[in-house]
Write a structure and sequence with these properties.
By secondary structure, the chain is an alpha+beta fold. It has a single domain, classed as Aminopeptidase (3-Layer(aba) Sandwich). The chain is built from four helices and seven strands, in the order E-H-H-E-E-E-H-E-H-E-E. It has a seven-stranded mixed β-sheet with strand order 1-2-3-4-5-7-6, sandwiched between helices. Helix 1 packs across helix 2. The protein is globular.
């Protein structure tokens, strides 16, 4: 992966379709286990996506919502809330066909670099069954606690 091809830009209204696709891709594994019709799955994903968007806006109004682009084409999203005491990654998702190519790792390392410059830790909630758990651990995140089906993963810059 050529890092020069990866960029971030603010989310816009024109991104709603790709954001919905990204959200749906993050739920594909669990939806494969339910006996719903494609229409029911689509309705569920749309409802959950709207709920997530509303939750993020209400709980993290200052968070930065960015599209991850590869050669200018959106391939992912990252939502980052920069608190006074830490950086909280609300979400990072890359399209399935772009996963395991280094795009997510690059974006995470950039966040970690910025956090290091600010002297702040980075936190993210990751489902216990999410394959990206290995990525976070490889980058030095540790399991700080477990809440239900989520691990609170935390990375602290070296002092």
């Amino acid at each position: 992966m050529d890092p020069a091809k990866i960029s971030l830009r603010p989310v816009s209204e024109a991104d709603m379709a790709i954001l919905l696709e990204l959200y749906g891709s993050s739920r594909a594994q669990e939806l494969a286990m339910v006996p719903w019709t494609p229409e029911q799955k689509k309705a569920f994903i749309e409802m959950q996506f709207r709920a997530q968007q509303s939750h993020y806006q209400a709980e993290y109004p200052r968070a930065e919502h960015s599209m991850i682009c590869l050669d200018g084409v959106p391939v992912g999203r990252v939502y980052l809330d920069r608190h006074a005491e830490e950086f909280h990654i609300l979400d990072i998702t890359v399209l399935p066909q772009q996963r395991n190519a280094g795009t997510g790792s690059f974006v995470l390392r950039q966040i970690m670099k910025e956090a290091t410059g600010s002297g702040k830790p980075v936190r993210i909630y990751v489902e216990t069954f999410n394959p990206s758990l290995r990525l976070f651990e490889r980058l030095g995140f540790v399991r700080a606690q477990q809440t239900g089906i989520h691990f609170v993963m935390k990375w602290t810059p070296e002092q």
